[in-house]
Amino acid sequence: MATMTAAQRREKARAEYDAFIRACPTNQLLDRISDKWVSLVVAALAPAPMRYSDLARKIAGVSPKMLTQTLRTLERDGILTRTVTPSVPVRVDYALTPLGSSLALLLTAVKDWAENHFDEVHAARERYDEETDR
Amino acid sequence: MATMTAAQRREKARAEYDAFIRACPTNQLLDRISDKWVSLVVAALAPAPMRYSDLARKIAGVSPKMLTQTLRTLERDGILTRTVTPSVPVRVDYALTPLGSSLALLLTAVKDWAENHFDEVHAARERYDEETDR
DNA sequence: CAGCATCCCCTGTGATACTG
DNA sequence: CAGTATCACAGGGGATGCTG
Fold it and tell me: Which residues belong to any copy of the HTH hxlR-type domain (chains A, B) (predicted)?
């Protein structure tokens, strides 16, 4: 295998690259938790379990569709549990799993960072815009 | 202003809601840093400053367009600095600011979480799919 | 109450090609 | 090397209406 055309080498590199991307857990999971709604849902559930309508109210701005979609993927990923109480009317509770709680710790830290450093970011933006705008 | 039609009341509520959303620093910043490319760029720059082409190579999968776009917004937000050295060929270095470094700490933690818990998430997914698929 | 189904638009994103 | 410009596309996400 000492001989290999440039095309073959390129193809090999590409194949390895693709495998790397698919195999790379970081990118996969990072993509999922780098989601607006994921952050908000996990943060909302961090203090205490909540019902569907509580979440809808607390997150304010989320459509039923996105809320459900987000909750389903998070349930699938073992981040939270979905508990249906078959009363009338139905009652559905969502709660973080231990896994979800460990993630919530980090996302809450990020959220706190955003709150604490908003001033600096805002100031930086104004400076930048002033120097740039025209 | 005791009299107000339903439409007016709705419009007022909407205006207040919009103002609330815009005023809320958490959502604004959270949205920005809850971005795939932001995470990757900040993580890439955390160990050491890098040049444009270094970033393009390290991140692998990002288009020039998205890379530039991401770098610009992060520069605007004071997360990183852009330094042009007018040699031939041109050389542009990107480095995290102290503000950016503090954020990098958190995002790196999230990245590590993703790496360390991928197995659990993956297992949860298989369990979920097995119970659900039909 | 807690959804699911459908429609549909619009923007973010990627590919490609060109420039200082 | 470090971008910018243009185009074309997919699909994210909202609105609406219906159900167990």
Answer: 24-122
- Among candidates A31, A38, A129 on the partner chain, residue whose Cβ is nearest the Cβ of B36: A31
DSSP H or E segment with residue A100: helix A98-132
| CATH fold label, A9-132 | Arc Repressor Mutant, subunit A (1.10.10)
Element (H, E) at B75: helix B64-76
Within 8 A of B78 by CB-CB distance, chain A residues are 120-121, 123-125, 127-128
- Residue with the bigger pLDDT between A111 and B123: it is B123
* Protein CA at B67 to nucleotide C1' at C20, angstroms: 19
Distances, alpha carbon B58 to alpha carbons A91, A130, B71, in Å: 48, 32, 14
Extents of the domains making up chain A: 9-132
Mean pLDDT (whole number) for B51-77: 94
What distance in Å separates the CA atoms of residue A123 and residue A126, rounded to the nearest whole number? 5
Q: Which helix (H) or strand (E) holds B50?
A: strand B50-51
**CB-strand contact B51/D, under 7 Å:** yes
- Cβ-nearest to B26 among A77, A114, A125: A114
Confidence of residue B24 (pLDDT cuts 50, 70, 90): low
Mind listing the pLDDT tens digit for each residue in B84-113?
999 888 999 999 999 999 999 999 898 889
